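> example.struct
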């Protein structure tokens, strides 16, 4: 190998090394600038979409999330969802980043199907929650369910089943109570009351629905209450005839 050839190789190696050093320095500079921009970035704006929320619900959620202050990229989206879930009346929360708007929050409230007790609602999933606007508990007409909160889902499902069985008679549950002894107390929209125990409950109620649509139908309006806590039959209380 000639002296000239060795000199050329050495020169190229030096240039390659300098190129690597330059590339490394440029990368370090870019990372440093990026880190400084990251640190100096303004606090991201949190935008709560009002769609599906009442004015009061939108305001309450916005106030709660206003305490979450961080930059656009540093904002923990899962933390925002977790904070939002502190509001028991919220059902779904979706959080995304938007270059133009900031941190966008879309939320849907739970939809009640009945009151649970006097101060709470229950939704179709059987979840009990306290509404933000308490006046909704009395401003609108809701069936009322009562029992141990741990049994809330079962009580709600029982109401839905009873409504479907007695729908042909235009009977809908107005009040339903599950006692600690697993006895069901049901009052329908016509005032008719039904008591049934926890043994073969489904079969007893389905049989009653059938009887009220067939043999007992002619006297349905005369009935005040039915007690199904018997193995072979039922007890019927009749309305007292009005005196003229």
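> example.seq
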């Amino acid at each position: 190998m000639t002296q000239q050839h060795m000199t050329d190789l050495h020169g190229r190696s030096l240039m390659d090394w300098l190129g690597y050093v330059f590339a490394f320095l440029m990368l370090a500079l870019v990372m440093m600038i990026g880190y400084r921009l990251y640190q100096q970035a303004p606090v991201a704006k949190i935008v709560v979409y009002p769609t599906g929320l009442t004015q009061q619900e939108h305001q309450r959620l916005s106030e709660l999330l206003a305490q979450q202050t961080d930059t656009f990229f540093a904002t923990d989206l899962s933390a925002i969802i977790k904070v939002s879930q502190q509001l028991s009346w919220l059902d779904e929360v979706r959080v995304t980043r938007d270059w133009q708007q900031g941190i966008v929050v879309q939320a849907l409230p739970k939809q009640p199907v009945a009151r649970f007790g006097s101060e709470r609602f229950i939704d179709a999933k059987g979840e009990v929650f306290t509404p933000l606007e308490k006046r909704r508990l009395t401003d609108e007409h809701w069936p009322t369910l009562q029992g141990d909160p741990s049994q809330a889902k079962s009580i709600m499902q029982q109401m839905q089943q009873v409504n479907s069985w007695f729908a042909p008679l235009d009977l809908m549950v107005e009040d339903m109570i599950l006692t600690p002894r697993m006895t069901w107390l049901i009052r329908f929209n016509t005032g008719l009351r039904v008591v049934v125990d926890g043994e073969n409950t489904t079969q007893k109620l389905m049989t009653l629905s059938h009887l009220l649509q067939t043999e007992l139908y002619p006297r349905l309006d005369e009935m005040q209450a039915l007690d199904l806590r018997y193995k072979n039959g039922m007890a019927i209380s009749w309305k007292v005839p009005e005196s003229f």
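> remarks
The CA atoms of residues 92 and 108 lie 5 Å apart.
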